[in-house]
Amino acid sequence: MAELITVEDPADPRLRDYTGLTDVELRRRREPAEGLFIAEGEKVIRRAKDAGYEMRSMLLSAKWVDVMRDVIDELPAPVYAVSPELAEQVTGYHVHRGALASMQRRPLPTAVDLLGSARRVVIMESVNDHTNIGAIFRSAAALGMDAVLLSPDCADPLYRRSVKVSMGAVFSVPYARLDAWPRGLDAVRDAGFTLLALTPDEKAKSLDEAAPHRMDRVALMLGAEGDGLSTKALMAADEWVRIPMAHGVDSLNVGAAAAVAFYAVATGRPQA
Fold first, then answer.
1. CA-to-CA distance for 186 and 219, rounded, in angstroms?
2. Where are the domains of the chain?
3. 159-169: per-residue pLDDT in tens?
4. Contact of 59 with 87, CB cutoff 8 Å
5. Partners of 245 in the β-ladder
6. Ramachandran bin of 260, using left for φ above 0, alpha for ψ from -120 to 50, beta for the remaining angles
7. Which of 223, 212, 209, 220 has its CA nearest to residue 253?
8. Rounded CA gap, 179 and 152, in Å?
9. Which CATH number applies to 111-266: 3.40.1280.10, 3.40.50.300, 3.20.20.70, 3.30.750.200?
10. 6/82 Cα distance (integer angstroms)
11. Are 108 and 176 in contact (CB under 8 A)?
């Protein structure tokens, strides 16, 4: 059973995991280095726990203690009960969901580990907006993608904003980082995947024409908001695909485009 501890000092060192959550650069360095990530909100905390992540501690405002009582009773990690005002002082923002948990990261699998059993894979290049990362993971989970591969410079899927936007889907879709870019794509192709680069370029085939749902193994490549896939990534692809646009719209936000493309890739996939 977790120990319930009332804390009244925002400088209490036991709250260090939660300090400065709005300082993106600090958290980008600290969290991976210290092996932690922050889950925010009841649903996300429960999904992280159910996915097997070890809890380091929880930070709760008083009214959330009863809501999270079953979790508190089940886990040995300390639970810090604080006022909403103190939570804001510690984290740097109004914690309107009232519940935060510091979770222990796990070692990432390798790309080869994931490719062995996957049929539909997402590959992101230089997607460094945490909101987009979270949205893409949520769509990947909802629409049946099997795994996500990230270029070395992609944002951290376990950063608080990504986890929150994904509603915990980052815990249900396995992911790995490619150590080299774009050379790491060779391993994907060697595993039997067709590399499809999503681009608004008029030379690309429409998704309907390419019919990725009929392909045995597909890796869909997505680029960063605005810039899209780099020239090197486009040249490394087997085929370019696009989402047909109407009313003079040239492209969609990468999160929205990903959802449309995932549906086209995964619908009617060949059965194992």
1. 12
2. 4-104, 111-266
3. 999 999 999 99
4. yes
5. none
6. alpha
7. 223
8. 6
9. 3.40.1280.10
10. 6
11. yes
Q: How far is CA 94 from the centre of its chain?
A: 23
Amino acid symbol at 12: D
pLDDT over threshold 90, residue 96:
no
Domain 4-104 is classified in which CATH homologous superfamily? Ribosomal protein L30/S12 (3.30.1330.30)
Read off the pLDDT of residues 139-160 as tens digits, 9 standing for 90 and up: 999 999 999 999 999 999 999 9
- Answering whether pTM is above 0.85, one says yes
- Helix 254-266, helix 130-142: angle, nearest 10: 20
Given strand 120-124, what is the order of strands in its sheet? 175-177, 147-150, 120-124, 218-222, 194-198, 239-242, 205-206
Residue with the two structure tokens 């996300």: 44
Residue for token pair 């460094």? 128
Q: Is 196 helix (H, G, I), strand (E, B) or coil?
A: strand
